[in-house]
Design brief:
Structural class: alpha+beta
Radius of gyration: 24 Å
CATH superfamily: SoxY domain
CATH architecture: Sandwich
Strand content: 35-45%
Shape: globular
CATH topology: Immunoglobulin-like
Number of strands: 9
Length: 164
């Protein structure tokens, strides 16, 4: 029994219509992705982002706990919690927590807002890390002061980063 074969004209019509120009353009785009260096933020960019969040105000270290595994096999989905020591009363509470990273394409991870009705100043989320780096959390208090906490993280397999 011989297998059923389509005529050669039918097989040719199933092939995608790809011109030489489209093929070359795709190859050039792939070469740019491979050759172009990864775009990453520098520590100076993280400091500038923190300064923009605080308006240049002084930041007191301590009172903010950043909890991330210190050694990560993959930076694709990293669990992170941030806790701020605060009574969360009308007189003394956390207004916002901002999280920054040192070597991802964007230094801003996110800003989380609170009120006294939040009950506690606690954030739990997952982030992506493009490389081994420092992660910093800055808390804005109701009296206008700022507190911070940080952690250094080692990533053995970085997450994908944006191309140039």
């Amino acid at each position: 029994m011989t297998p059923h074969r389509q005529p050669s004209a039918a097989r040719a019509s199933l092939a995608p219509d790809l011109s030489r120009r489209a093929f070359l353009a795709g190859g050039a785009g792939a070469a740019v992705c491979v050759i172009a260096p990864s775009v990453r933020a520098a520590p100076a960019e993280m400091e500038a982002a923190i300064k923009a969040f605080t308006g240049g105000a002084a930041i007191a270290p301590g009172g903010v706990t950043v909890d991330i595994p210190v050694l990560l096999e993959s930076g694709n989905s990293v669990p992170m919690t941030v806790t701020v020591d605060s009574p969360m009363t009308a007189q003394s509470h956390v207004r916002a927590i901002a999280v920054f990273n040192e070597r991802n394409p964007q230094p801003n991870v996110g800003v989380f807002h609170f009120s006294p009705r939040s009950g506690r100043a606690f954030v739990s989320t997952r982030i992506r890390l493009g490389d081994s780096q420092k992660v910093v959390a800055v808390a804005q208090m109701s009296d206008g002061s700022f507190r911070s906490g940080e952690i250094d993280v080692i990533v053995t397999l970085p997450a994908c980063v944006e191309g140039a």
